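Technical note accompanying the year-one report. For the benefit of new consortium partners, we illustrate the data format agreed upon in the data management plan: each record pairs a sequence with a structure-token string. No post-processing was applied to the example shown here.
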Amino acid sequence: MSEEESKYTAFKGPWRMVADRSDIELESAERRKEGLENPCRQRPKKMWVSQEELHRQKVPLYYRDYCAHWFIPWRNCLVDNNWTKKAHRTICHRWKEGWDMCEIRDNLDRIAEKKCLKKEGLWRKVPFSAEIFDDKRDKLMAKDDGW
């Protein structure tokens, strides 16, 4: 074998990198098997901000959804810049765009989930699971750094 051939070796690993499933995904898969999880949910929903943090930041109830982790820094940025037009247009626009995209994605997920449930004949028959208020979820969220 020449020196040049030994320098280059053939690729033997997987062609596509697939990340390991997170604890939340594994937990939702177990819940799905037990019939507690919505079978049409594409990805498990997760609150990145705890209820205590939402209360501390004085987030209105209307905005306490799965995209609150974008809303809080956007509003704080606007407050820091005295709610000026420049803050709305240039300084804080990244946070606003992130919040908008998160809201759009969440709405599209909800629409797809509803279509799937109707197709499966499970619409209004899947048991409600209040994931936001589960003690387990709050403990997991306390460990996880969402920022």
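Partners are asked to follow this layout when depositing records. Helices lie at 3-7, 23-34, 51-56, 68-80, 85-91, 93-120, 135-143.
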